[in-house]
C-alpha cells in the first residue's frame, strides 16, 4: 500500500503511455485490464436491498459498513480511480461434468484446485502497479484481490470488462466467466473507460436459475446466500440445513453449476496459468480418498490453497454429506462409522445423517 503525498499529475506523454495498460496486464498473465469509473450508487443500493432482505445468510460482517464498498476513497484515502483487471483460470468443462456425474468422486469448485488466487493476483497487481510507475512516475495506490470490502464486479463492469449476469457473476462476451478479478486503487484521475463491452447480453436466458441445485438464485440478479452451495460449504459454520443436503450431491467445496451451464462460457479463454493447475488430482479425487486424510495430511496437502478457508472440520462435514449422497456401499458405511468417535457435535450429526442415507442401522 502506498500513501505518499499526491505527486504531480502525469504529462500528456504519460497519459499516452497508459493506453498500453491492457498490454502490460497481459504480459503479467492477466486477460485484460481497464480504468473503472466510481459511479457505484445504484450498485450500493442493490447491495443494501440484498442485505435488508436478509439474503446474506450468516455473513453479518457484510452489514458493518456497506458504504466502504461504494466509496473507494475510504479504503485508500485519495483514491480517484480504480484499475480493474481479470485473470482467467483453467477449466476443463467436460471433466467437471464427468465428476459431477460420478457420485463417488468429490467436486471442488474449479477456482480452488490450485494455488490460492488471492496470493497470485495480489503479487501480479503489485507488479502491474510498478510497471505503471515505470511509465508515468510514482503514484499512490493500493492493490486488492478480494481482500477488502469492494464492489469488484461493478467496478469491472465500469471498466468495460463485462456485465453482471443473472447468476451475479461477471461475464465477458468473448471470455465467459471463468476468471478472477483484482483492483488497483489509485490517486490518478484516469479517463473513463469505454464500457460498451459491459452491455448486458443475458437476454431471456434462465439457464443459471434453472440449473442451481438448491434454487439459490431466487430471481435474476438475486442470490439467496443461505441456499447457495458455495456459501454453505465454505462460509457457513455449524450444521447445514437437512433440507438442502441431498441437493448438494458430491459438491464439497463450492459449486460451478451456474457457470458450467452458461452459454457464454462456450467462448471461455484457455488458461495455462501454472499456479492455478489442479494439485493432488483434486479435480477428480474420490470421496473416500479425501475422507481418509487426517488433519496433518489435510494441512500438508492444502498448504497455500483456498481450500484452507473451510477448515478441516467443515471439510469433513462437507465430505460426510457427499458420502451420504453416494451409492450405498460397505466401504462408505465403514468410513463414516470410523469417525463417529469425533468430539465435534456438528460432524457427528452429519455422519449419522449420512449413515441413515446409506441404510445403516
Automatic annotation (TrEMBL):
Quick one: where is this thing mainly located?
Answer: cytoplasm
Cofactor (UniProt)? [4Fe-4S] cluster; cob(II)alamin
Note the Pfam families from the entry.
Answer: Fer4_16, QueG_DUF1730
Write the Enzyme Commission number(s) for this entry.
1.17.99.6
Functional summary from the UniProt entry: Catalyzes the conversion of epoxyqueuosine (oQ) to queuosine (Q), which is a hypermodified base found in the wobble positions of tRNA(Asp), tRNA(Asn), tRNA(His) and tRNA(Tyr).
- Where does this one sit in the cell? Cytoplasm
Single GO term (MF) = 4 iron, 4 sulfur cluster binding
Q: Name one GO cellular component term.
A: cytoplasm
Q: In which pathway does it act?
A: tRNA modification; tRNA-queuosine biosynthesis
The protein's name in its UniProt record: Epoxyqueuosine reductase
Q: Which reaction does it catalyse?
A: epoxyqueuosine(34) in tRNA + AH2 = queuosine(34) in tRNA + A + H2O
- Which terms are listed as keywords in the entry? 4Fe-4S, Cobalamin, Cobalt, Cytoplasm, Iron, Iron-sulfur, Metal-binding, Oxidoreductase, Queuosine biosynthesis, tRNA processing
The record's family statement is:
Belongs to the QueG family.
Q: Where does [4Fe-4S] cluster 2 bind?
A: 212, 228, 255, 258
Quote the cofactor binding remark: Binds 2 [4Fe-4S] clusters per monomer.
Q: Which residues form the 4Fe-4S ferredoxin-type domain?
A: 193-222
Self-association state and partner proteins as the record states: Monomer.
Q: Which SUPFAM superfamilies match?
A: 4Fe-4S ferredoxins (SSF54862)
Instruction: Give the binding site residues for cob(II)alamin.
Output: 69, 146, 170, 181, 230, 255-256
Amino acid at each position: 500500500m502506498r500513501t505518499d503525498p499526491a505527486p504531480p499529475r502525469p504529462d500528456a506523454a504519460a497519459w499516452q503511455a497508459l493506453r498500453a495498460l491492457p498490454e502490460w496486464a497481459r504480459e503479467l498473465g492477466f486477460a485484460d485490464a481497464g480504468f473503472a469509473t466510481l459511479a457505484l450508487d445504484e450498485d450500493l443500493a442493490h447491495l443494501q436491498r440484498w442485505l435488508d432482505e436478509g439474503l446474506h445468510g450468516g455473513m453479518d460482517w457484510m452489514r458493518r459498513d456497506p458504504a466502504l464498498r461504494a466509496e473507494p476513497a475510504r479504503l485508500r484515502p485519495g483514491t480517484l480511480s480504480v484499475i480493474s483487471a481479470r485473470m482467467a483460470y483453467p477449466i476443463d468443462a467436460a471433466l467437471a461434468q464427468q465428476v459431477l456425474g460420478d457420485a463417488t468422486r468429490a467436486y471442488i469448485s474449479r477456482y480452488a484446485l490450485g494455488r490460492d488466487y488471492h496470493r497470485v493476483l495480489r503479487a501480479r497487481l503489485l507488479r502491474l502497479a510498478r510497471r505503471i510507475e515505470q511509465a508515468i512516475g510514482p503514484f499512490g495506490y493500493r492493490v486488492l484481490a478480494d481482500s477488502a470490502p469492494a464492489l469488484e464486479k461493478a467496478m469491472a463492469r465500469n471498466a468495460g470488462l463485462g456485465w453482471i449476469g443473472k447468476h451475479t457473476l461477471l461475464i465477458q462476451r468473448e471470455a465467459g466467466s471463468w476468471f478472477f478479478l483484482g483492483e488497483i486503487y489509485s490517486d490518478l484521475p484516469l479517463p473513463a473507460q469505454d464500457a460498451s463491452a459491459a452491455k448486458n447480453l443475458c437476454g431471456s436466458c434462465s439457464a443459471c436459475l434453472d440449473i442451481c441445485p438448491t434454487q439459490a438464485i431466487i430471481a435474476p440478479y438475486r442470490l439467496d446466500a443461505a441456499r447457495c452451495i458455495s456459501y454453505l460449504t465454505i462460509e457457513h459454520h455449524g450444521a447445514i440445513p437437512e433440507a438442502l443436503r441431498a441437493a448438494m450431491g458430491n459438491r464439497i467445496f463450492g459449486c460451478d453449476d451456474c457457470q458450467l451451464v452458461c452459454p457464454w462460457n462456450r467462448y471461455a479463454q484457455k488458461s495455462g496459468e501454472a499456479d492455478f493447475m489442479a494439485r493432488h488430482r483434486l479435480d477428480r479425487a474420490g470421496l473416500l480418498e479425501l475422507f481418509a486424510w487426517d488433519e496433518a495430511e489435510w494441512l500438508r496437502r492444502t498448504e497455500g490453497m483456498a481450500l484452507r478457508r473451510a477448515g478441516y472440520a467443515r471439510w469433513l462435514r462437507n465430505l460426510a454429506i457427499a458420502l451420504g449422497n453416494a451409492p450405498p456401499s460397505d466401504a462408505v458405511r465403514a468410513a463414516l462409522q470410523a469417525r463417529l468417535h469425533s468430539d465435534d457435535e456438528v460432524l457427528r450429526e452429519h455422519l449419522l445423517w449420512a449413515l441413515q442415507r446409506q441404510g445403516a442401522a
